[in-house]
Amino acid sequence: MIPIAKPMIGSEEINAVVKAMESGGLAQGPRVRLFEEYFADYIGVSHAVATSSGTAGLHVALLAHGIGAGDEVVTTPFSFIATANTVLFTGARPVFADIGEDYNIDPEGILHAITPKTKAVLPVHLYGCPAGMKAIREIAEDHNLTIIEDACQAHGATYDGKKVGSFGTGVFSFYPTKNMTTGEGGMITTDDPGIAKRARMLRDHGSSKRYVHEMLGYNLRMTDMGAAIGMVQLTKLNDFNSRRRMNAAHLTGELEHVHGITTPEDVLGHVFHQYTVRVSGGDGGSGRGRSAGVGGAGNGGKGGVGNGMRDSLVAHLGEKGIRTGVYYPIPIHRQPLYRKLGFQDGLPVSERFADEVLSLPVHPAVSGDDLDYIVETIKDYFENHVEVK
Q1: Which structural domains are found in the chain, ordered by start?
Q2: Do the beta carbons of residue 286 and residue 261 sit within 8 Å?
């Protein structure tokens, strides 16, 4: 079986955890502080604040910026649900702007979504692909909006030569499937000392020093064992990302002319947390950057449950020992929770792409033989199992 993701854990990480456990310092301690320093330096910011998860990081970042009841945050509906849920956690309301061909929020959509209640914009660097931060920063400056970057899938991704997570307040996740991991964990990055100070207090019961609590806070700390893993993983991240890029380039080179498949755009600075193609509904369309199956995405309907060809390909690959992922089959605004909150359709690109996307194995453990097998299996499916008009 070729897995869709695989944590790259070696003897160095294991030894680091053992040393942390032997030290007796298991909760947030010196290793967490050191990891924060290393990560801030890697991203190119002044401060980093470790948390128990990427979700916790987003929640804390929003609160640190004073986002709360009555506020609106413009974000994307095409992401993991935590992106929008953390806005709800604060009492604010997410407002969704549609996405572009790169799967990231469309700056023009942000402009149309801004109201007098808008306090922040929350772009996601989805799949490791950097969002259009130049346009987003200009919009934020023109409308006096805070930028909080959901970089949970984009460790090491760059835009215009700068690491994502340095354009506003960044948030990263270290879940096991990410480009680097701490087991569970997250990190907030910022150049603002005030935001860093509030974030540190919010993650630790609102405490500025032991047993002095100045605000309502939470227990969202990282452990020293997790930080020990993270410090080792950070030294390997550039190599991990290089291998992901090479694997992605191999897949694109072989698949970009397969009818029925749309390969990802060749975006500078992409770190390919996921290698995501789009599968048409059988009415043609292929090639990098083109929309396959426009207007005929299959039977996704109002629930966004996919198209027959995409789901058939998933089954075919699974039968051949190739695990895949659909990220994400239902846009956030179509989720049952958000329907109850009154969110409606009207984001056509997100709704269509949810019916078409399919992620293929691209992680560093995928070998050249694995890549060739994936390509051959996909080509076999379209040549022998599907009649493409």
Answers
A1: 11-234 (3.40.640.10), 237-384 (3.90.1150.10)
A2: yes
